[in-house]
Structures are given as C-alpha cells and as structure tokens.
Amino acid sequence: MNIPENLFYTKDHEWLKLDGDIATVGITDFAQKELGDIVFVDVDTVDEELDAEEAFGTIEAVKTVSDMFMPVSGTVVELNEELDDQPELINKDPYGKGWIIKIKLADTSEVENMLKADQYKELI
Length: 124
Hints:
By secondary structure, the protein is of the alpha+beta class. The chain contains 4 helices and 9 strands; from the N terminus they run βββαβββββααβα. Helices cover 18% and strands 35% of the residues. The strands form 2 sheets. It has a 6-stranded antiparallel sheet.
C-alpha cells in the first residue's frame, strides 16, 4: 500500500498536498483499490467555497458511485481536466497524475487536524 509521508489524509480516504494556501486533493491508493476500475469523475463545484467534509463531487467505478469530501474548508479553484478522458489515471497514479481538484484554503491551520501518514496507516 502506497502512503506517501509528505501528504495529509482524511478518514474518508482523501489526501491533500499543501503548497502555500493552495492544496491538491485526490483519493488514496487504498480508496482506488477498494473502488476498482474508475470510469467517471464528476466535479461541478469549481469556483464554489465549501466547508470541510462537504461533498465536492462523485467518483464512479464499475462497482459503485461514491461521494468525495473536502478535507478542509476552501474554494475549489481547479479540476484535473485530464480525468474527463482518462479517469483511470486515478487507478494508475493516485498521488500524481490522478489528482482530482485544487483548492484555495480558507484557513491553513485546518490541515493540522488531518491525519499524518502513520495515523492513516493505522486507520486502514
């Protein structure tokens, strides 16, 4: 199981990479394996300000459809457009080319409430 040490995690299996007040968000390697082959990603919250744990979109796999939740409060500023044609990037590279959204954080201190890699390992 791939759990990079430099990322932050949620109990809902999202990850966050912080770069100043902009964060890149995706789903974890564990989540993509549990979902199976991902066939569609739907995010219609670009330019919306959302609270932590609020749904920002859905991810559809062959087996199921799941909501994706904001790891922290902020405004969705970008969607990974490559996922429109290649949703399988999430299966192949969940922490790289398979990122889902970028958000401008409302409060960077919220990241401190997220799980570190070792805490996420214990969760799963």
